[in-house]
Each structure stands twice: as structure tokens, then as C-alpha cells.
Specification:
alpha+beta, 5-stranded antiparallel beta sheet
Length: about 160
């Protein structure tokens, strides 16, 4: 007998909750604020069936374009036959979490702004571009003593 290709086919482990994290959704999930333009990760919660995204979108990161009372609209990129299509999906807030993908970028922007303000006070010009690590400085290798290396003497094994 052939197997079905249903909407939730092959999601036994995909939608399973982590170890010791089973049960109801904590209230803190509902008190999070989501704004248009925020980056979120679409992570389907298997215990909530309403507003669950398709299994393709599980683990994808997108940007919020619409906020309603109990759901958010997310733009997620989908690769179809070699081209990338921005898909607009509506997902309940139980199935999204704020993305940490931009944390390093936002921290770097704040640090750069602080550097610019400090440099302006001192009257200096500063470059905030990230520079790759350059080659190491020149140095002379001076060994204390020369070691002569000879091959080991051949010995029969039998």
C-alpha cells in the first residue's frame, strides 16, 4: 500500500517538542510584542494545531509584514525551480519566536555609533569598517642549535 502525502506527513520528529518541554504553552509566549519589520523564526509548536505553518516553513527566518490580534504575517523566501520567491504566510504567535540572527549586527552598529561619537569629540577621523586580519609582522628565525635529522636504520622484520 502506498503512503499518503498529507500536509503533516513525515513530521513525527519535526513537530515534536523538546525533552521536558511538553505541555501547555507558557503565558510569556503571548505577552511578547511583535512589530512590523521584526525578524522572526518560524518554529511550529506541535501542541497547538491552530495557525500552524506548513512543514516547509519550519525553521525558516522571515520578516513580519502584518500583525493581528493572535497571528502575524511573515515574508519567507522559498526556492522554487532555481528562483527565490518571497512567500507571505500568516502564522499564530505560538509558532514564531524572535530571531537572533541580527543580534551581532545590531550590537556592532551600536558600538560603531559610540566610536563615532567619541572620535567626533576628540576631532579625529575614524574608520569603522571591519578589516581582515593582516599578515604577521616580519621576524628573523634564529634557532639556538642546528639539529641534523637522519633516516632510521633499516631493520628486517622477520
Amino acid at each position: 500500500m502506498v503512503h499518503s502525502h498529507g500536509v503533516r506527513a513525515r513530521t513525527r520528529d519535526l513537530f515534536a517538542k523538546p525533552y521536558k518541554k511538553h505541555g501547555a504553552v507558557p503565558f510569556s509566549k503571548y505577552f511578547q510584542t511583535h512589530k512590523v519589520g521584526d525578524y522572526v523564526d518560524v518554529i511550529a509548536d506541535g501542541s497547538i494545531h491552530k495557525g500552524m505553518p506548513h512543514k516547509f516553513y519550519h525553521g525558516k527566518t522571515g520578516r513580519i509584514f502584518n500583525v493581528t490580534a493572535s497571528a502575524v504575517g511573515v515574508v519567507v523566501n522559498k526556492k522554487v525551480n532555481g528562483r527565490i520567491i518571497p512567500k507571505r504566510i500568516h502564522v499564530r504567535i505560538e509558532h514564531v519566536r524572535k530571531s537572533r540572527s541580527r543580534l551581532a549586527f545590531v550590537e556592532r552598529v551600536k558600538a560603531n555609533d559610540a566610536k563615532k561619537v567619541a572620535a567626533k569629540k576628540e576631532g579625529k577621523k575614524i574608520s569603522v569598517k571591519r578589516e581582515p586580519v593582516g599578515p604577521s609582522d616580519a621576524h628573523v628565525v634564529a634557532p639556538e642549535e642546528v639539529t641534523v635529522i637522519n633516516p632510521l636504520k633499516f631493520r628486517e622484520l622477520y
